[in-house]
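This section describes the prediction task in plain terms. A model, or a person checking by hand, is given the sequence of a single protein chain and must write out its three-dimensional structure as a string of tokens. No templates, partner chains or ligands are provided. The sample shown here is typical of the held-out split.
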Amino acid sequence: MRVPEAQVDRVRRAAAAGNVDALFTLATWMLAGDPVPRDLAAARVLLGRARAIGHVDAALMEIALVANGSGGPADWPRATALLARAAVADPVAAAQQALLQAMALGPDGAPERVPVAETLVAAPLVRRVPALLSPAECAHLARTGAPFLAPALVADPQTGRNRPDPVRRCSTAVIGPAREDLVVRAILLRIAAVTGTVAAAGEPLTVLRYGPGEQFRPHLDTLPGAAAANQRRWTVLVYLNQGYAGGETRFDALDLTVAGRAGDALIFANTDATGTPDPRTRHAGLPIGTGTKWLATRWIRSNEFSVWD
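The expected answer:
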């Protein structure tokens, strides 16, 4: 539903007068680009003003943008300082700070040590990283995505637009840059390190939930119509839980079936060296028998691209 222009004007005036809720509302509109033009830098300023007045959600959103460089330079030390300040009064921020303190991170949030991957298939390259995430980190990703879960969509090969399709039966939630708390950001930097890529080449992390009977039939992760120069080069699957039956990741052409344990990551190339989709990486998420499977997916492009665009 379109927001009336009169309401937009009221929110702008209230924000200019220092109303904290108006500041936060206008900032979220600027991030979304609706009903006002997208302006990441201005949104970040408004969130900072709202945070200074005491708006907790604005503080957490500002921290995310400062860490990932949306609307201004990426500044991990400043983001962690803002989180420490928020953690004094906000239990959500305090829980995030506790998780960060359990990680071995460098001054930019990247891991001090790169996890070791084991090769399952050499060509196309398929690797597994045991225990890439801790149980607490897995639970955090599931909790972060849970409120935003919705029926999964697939990219239409004719139009490139997302639509429902029986090929994919599950629920998904995209953790966009405004929801990338510092725990999520540190995990994305860890994924970049273990894949030898840069975080800016990754699409937003997607959390998936599969219930009994749900599955993802055989498919390629490459995008229809995407240029080879910036196709989805890598897929990273992180298994967030265990205790369910079924749900293995199956590559028919490679005669490979992977049943991940909680925290394990599966990394595989989707394209050849030229960026052309490799049909051998066609894979499926097999049906769930009993229980619920939680998964996180990070698709990584060949080069950097703007998540906001």
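For orientation: The chain has a mean pLDDT of 95.
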